[in-house]
User: Fold this.
Amino acid sequence: MQFPLTEEQRLIQTTAREFADNEIAPVADKHNREGVFPADLVKRMGQLGFLGMLVPETYGGNGIGNFGLVLALEEVNRACASTGVTMSVQNSLVCAPIVHFGSAALKKKYLPKLASGEFLGAYALSEPGSGSDAAGLVASAVKDGDSFVLNGTKNFITTGAEADVVIAMLRTDPSHKTRGITAFIVESGWEGFAVGKKEDKLGLRSSSTVQLVFEDMRVPAANILGEVGIGFKIAMHTLDGGRIGIAAQAVGIAQACLDASVKYAEEREAFDQQIGKFQAIQFKLANMATKIEASRLLVYNAARLKDAGQPHGKEAAMAKLFASEASNDAAREAVQIHGGAGYLEDFSVERYFRDARITEIYEGTSEIQRIVIARHVLKNLR
Assistant:
């Protein structure tokens, strides 16, 4: 798609594309089969500045912003969604809330190490009994002097096994559902922190997804993000940005599906001609390409609104909803175009098919996105 980019944005896109093609793609299938966390690639992303794109230069980042971030995320996810989700979480779910809500001391303490990749971060909101109903969380934080004592279990935490710091939402007031939640920055090295069950997943196999357990874990009150009682607000604000990142991930996966399908359609022959000459295949490719273009524009729009400080909740939800469903459509059609070959690990489309599925689930299911969008559309309804 020909879209006007500044010289800086084009450099980001080109750098990410070269990194994805030359360093990520050659090992993506191997990492996927072995379930290996791409630690070297994550370190390299830190060196390239891809882990601190929302962090101001004052705190060691490059302050590129959300539009530059989605340009890079698309390219990285085109090569490997497992690597891409680590990058998305670090930027959108960890660095961004610290930038927006953190005290000067917390920013100075954590942001430089997160931006460089010295520290990896995770975001802990979901629990075994609360997923889409985020306000239903029960993990607790009880004040004790100048500290809080944390107890409970967090579920489905991306990069939780490797994280040095975790943005964790805990209940500080059981009498209020949304106003009784507080956000904390916790360190994995502190006593009382443990990594629990590691999930064996359909896709994103080289990205760890684990339970995190807090058992009488003492956290200084100074590590509260924002202030007591506004954790739910922080969570929802953060998820708006996270949804833009996952939408960009979905675009990257979809683009990989289209690229692979075009290549196969030009090479594979049946009935004495390339299968790309059959209208049935052409229609599939045309639909894929059109949905990808539309998805990309929705993502770009949401990212630019966020960078401009304008309302973007509806646009982020629309981008995430449409791009994730388009990605799954593209993955399904890519496997179909490849026929029997698409069902084999010899071709990457089977990985794209499995990885695409999660984009309709995490950072808010498609059903939740429709609720968010509908509430904006019906905002004047009484």
